[in-house]
Amino acid sequence: MITIAGAGLAGLACAYELAQRGAEVTVYEQSAAIGVTSASRYAGGMLAPWCERESAEEDVITLGRCAADWWANVTPVHSRGTLVVAPPRDRAELTRFARRTYGHRTVSGDEIAALEPDLAGRFSTGLFFADEAHLDPRKAICDLADAVSACGADIRLGERAPQQVDLDCRGMAAADRLPDLRPVRGEMAILHCPEVEISRTMRLLHPRMPLYLVPRGDGVFMIGGTMIESSADRQVTLRSLTELLSAAFALHPAFAEASVVETGAGLRPAFTDNLPRLVQKTSTLFLNGLFRHGFLLAPALASQAAQHLLSETPHEHHSQRQTA
Fold first, then answer.
1. Which of 27, 53, 73, 126, by CA, is between 20 and 30 Å from 16?
2. CB distance 301 to 13 below 8 Å
3. How large is the average pLDDT for residues 168-180?
4. 38 pLDDT band (50/70/90 cuts)?
5. What distance in Å separates the CA atoms of residue 243 and residue 207, rounded to the nearest whole number?
6. Contact by Cβ (8 Å): 119, 213
């Protein structure tokens, strides 16, 4: 029997990998329902390793390149690529982004219009990352829980984990055991704007507030982009919301008439290098620090955790880069 504390993204991904390997698994989750308190609730759900290389280490690409295939076995994955654009005054940001990433091709204004007709005439050039994808985080986490249960694992909702478990995946709740862990607040808004039809993840580059926009279908879009070093667990700030909405308007003016369906903020656990880690402390293995790459990196880290826990001669996973 392998016991796991936390039925968030990391805990469920590990439970799935372990159960797929034939292990008997019990997952303890203090909340009464899946996903209601998880930081993944406020995620964009972007499976975009090549775009993330702009501000992350090469490990993010190495670990994340197979994430879309992994998730496709669990939940719908939309493999439409990522389109990166910038207003004319911020063309230098697009050039910088291109230099720091790969896996893209430069597209003209006509090609942008062919990819997203509603953006016709709005941008003269951009970058298209054809091999990237996205998913709906809230549906994905529930579908993952269903897949874990279908594999025979036991998810105990509304039940605090025992003091001693084999695997701790509790995010910021484990900070007392992981002193290098820090919270980074991410803020987002969900808009309803049926006047705009965009089918793939968009990134609008701006030096003050880079925006990402992820379509959820039926005229619903999630927008985000903030990274605030803060432990304040509260709603999105007025300044961040104003900047997010302003950036959405810069992408397409019809967003000025959008309805704001929801706003929110989540505390994302991160280590100093912003890369996740497997850390062994006495008899408990910790998987933590998924930061802003949760859906992208959880599959690879869960596989590593499962291999470690099922190994006949387990060894300590230190915070070295090669173990991510």
1. 53
2. yes
3. 95
4. confident
5. 12
6. no
Question: Taking a C-beta distance cutoff of 8 angstroms, is the pair 132, 49 a contact?
Answer: yes
* Cα 278 to Cα 137: distance, rounded to the nearest angstrom: 23
Given a cut of 50, whether residue 151 has pLDDT beyond it is yes
Residue 44 contacts residue 162 (beta carbons within 8 Å)? no
Q: Give the pLDDT score at 228.
A: 65
Among candidates 191, 174, 190, which has minimal Cα distance to 182?
Answer: 174
Give the chain's end-to-end CA distance (angstroms, integer). 26
Region of 45 on the Ramachandran plot (φ > 0 left; ψ -120 to 50 alpha; else beta) = left
- Six token digits for residue 317: 């996973």
Q: Please give the CATH number for the structural domain made up of 82-130+182-270.
A: 3.30.9.10
3-state class of 4 per DSSP? strand
Half-sphere exposure of 247 (CA within 13 A, CB side): 28
The rounded mean pLDDT for the chain is 92
Q: Which two tokens stand for residue 256?
A: 């000025």
- Amino acid identity at 227: M
Give residue-wise pLDDT tens across range 207-219. Answer: 777 899 999 999 9
Q: Does domain 2-48+135-179+273-323 have CATH number 3.50.50.60?
A: yes
pLDDT at 315: 40
As a whole number of angstroms, the distance between CA 302 and CA 293 comes to 13
Mean pLDDT, rounded, for 132-141: 97
